[in-house]
User: What shape does this take?
Amino acid sequence: MRILFIVPLFLCFAANLMSQESAAVYEQAIEVIKNSPEFKNQQVERFTVSKKSISFINSAYAFYLEDPDLAFIDYDFDNYFGEFYQPIEIKTFHSLREKRRAKHVLHVSETVQDHFIIEIHTHKRKKRGKYPKFYNGTSYSYLFKKEDNGDVTYLRTIRIVNQ
Assistant: This one.
């Protein structure tokens, strides 16, 4: 009986580990974001990072709407309505947190086919509702590709308006 409980628990743990990158990969991606014109236009003084992830598929759909020729995942977005997503904890990303609270928060997606997405949200106050339930405003999503040698390649940025 214990085996029936342990096997699914182990599979969930293994899937969670596979979806995480090293802190060095995330550091490279954050440096690219810090040097981006979108980040500089927001006049970000301080930011923090989220422990919880965002959905890669839902974010990839936003990139697909911006450019349907962008083929980085084998998924049929023609009849896509979004998925119910349960966030996971990405501890390596959260370990990069410098500030506990800030008006600008970075959220990362799990890695799918060597691609991951980091989204930055701007809040009016440091105290905020949990993503994605109560976020209304403009965010920027950055698409990255992890190379075989461990480097990160920036692919593109899109602006998302949530109302």
Summary: The beta strands are 47-49, 104-108, 115-122, 137-146, 152-162. Helices lie at 2-18, 23-34, 37-41, 56-66, 91-94. The radius of gyration is 16 Å. The longest strand covers residues 152-162.
